[in-house]
Automatic annotation (TrEMBL):
Lineage, broadest ranks: Eukaryota, Fungi, Dikarya, Ascomycota, Saccharomycotina
Domain Deacetylase sirtuin-type: 140-409
Organism: Henningerozyma blattae (strain ATCC 34711 / CBS 6284 / DSM 70876 / NBRC 10599 / NRRL Y-10934 / UCD 77-7)
Swiss-Prot/TrEMBL keywords: Metal-binding, NAD, Nucleus, Repressor, Transcription, Transcription regulation, Transferase, Zinc
Name under which the protein is recorded: Deacetylase sirtuin-type domain-containing protein
InterPro entries per record: DHS-like_NAD/FAD-binding_dom, NAD-dep_histone_deAcase_SIR2_N, NAD-dep_sirtuin_deacylases, Sirtuin, Sirtuin_cat_small_dom_sf, Ssirtuin_cat_dom
Coiled-coil region(s): none
Superkingdom of origin: Eukaryota
Protein residues bound to Zn(2+): 278, 281, 302, 305
A GO molecular-function descriptor: NAD+ binding
GO cellular component: nucleus
Amino acid sequence: MSPVLRIGRNAHTGKYILPPSSHESTEQARTFLKTHGLKSFLDAYLPEQLTSIHIYCLIRLLGFEIKNRRLLWDLSRHLETPRGQRANNSNSGPLSSTESASHNLSKYRVNSSSKDPLSSDQLARLIRDLQKAINRVLSMRLPLSSFSHPSSIIPILLSAKNIIVLTGAGVSTSLGIPDFRSSEGFYSRIRHLGLDDPQDVFSLDIFRKDPSVFYSIAHLVLPPQRMFSPLHAFIKLLQDRGSLLRNYTQNIDNFESHAGVDKDKLVQCHGSFATATCFTCGWKIAGERIYSNIRKMELPLCPHCIDKRNPSKPKSFGVLKPDITFFGESLPSRFHSLLRKDLEKCDLLLCIGTSLKVAPVSDIPKLLNDNVPRFLINRDPVSHGQFDINLLGLCDDTAVYLSKLCNWKIPCKNWQELASYDYECIKEPQKRCFSIIRSDNEYFPENNKIATNAKTASQLESESKIEENTTVNTTATSGSKIN
Ligand SMILES: [Zn+2]
């Protein structure tokens, strides 16, 4: 069937009736544009007798909405909205006014013999918006069509030789480590400190002026020792199979090492508590040696600098700082040197437990070749990652689910117990999204017949919340020397 836009008109009101739109029709149109190019796309979708309504309809079909309110209002006066149609088809946000428009749409003119509902200025504006929408789609990665169900990712999991695993806070929440940005996360828990921005506790400038700000909360992010989750062990399993190219972790808890991921396979993008360095002379020690200071909310002091501390010096003089990357510090050089080579080799990207909000790590999916499959394992979908499949739920459950499908055994001590559960994969309303649920979860289909697919993700969200159990003391001013 020809994809040309067919716009009807109400015989009584004269209003235009837009064809129904859906995620499927948007994906089809984007695929057509990327596959066949601009000329074929416009020829196929636009009729010969063109009105501004067709231009607007095409912008929406590509998944965008126009920004100009006046123009939207004028358009709405001429449109009928059929019941059941999505009020807003945009799934990529409004069009930015700063994008360049490089494609020439000028040959598509409204037939001068027909009366267009909009003024020529408004029509010109719409054409510019269509150009922006087209440019954006052309620069966008489209999901690979070969992955329609989680089971379809098993062959690639089994055959991939160079997997990049990108991990975030979500892989450690099952161990009681709070994530940073959720409503129950670390930044919410320190909001009462009265900082302009809770992220300031990790500001290098503030540490330089007053390291006690960091040491008053550092115990909250100090990792318990020698722990790892089934998900961390799943990464070790990929390493044992020889298919792990690298694990880029945004976490500072060092749990990947505890699970046995080799040093050379691991890039701790934001550093870790594994080592600490004197802020003044650069003396370095094992991070564990300042753990007791951190727990007591004391400043750990460098033995080489302690005697030179005095009130005329900055408060950070001679203070040891864990080698976690603060805001204002550059990422470890290892991140940049390895990433460039790894991106060329990578044949599968697994993003796990991350909402991809912190650059430059969040840019890794965009830097990969478009033809490299990428899967998300996370509590919530991450729309800007353009993943081929989104597996939603608890990261540990999904790791066990995939391992069972692959006939793998995760090297963790409770594997037998984890494998004894059934795991259900449920299609979510969002495109390419599936929830993975364990059979002891009350929302497992057999446990709760009234549970609907749409409820699943929100239920998982509430179950993975971390209880607030720690109070914050802001008086970490005393210092203690490290020998
Ligand atoms: Zn020192």
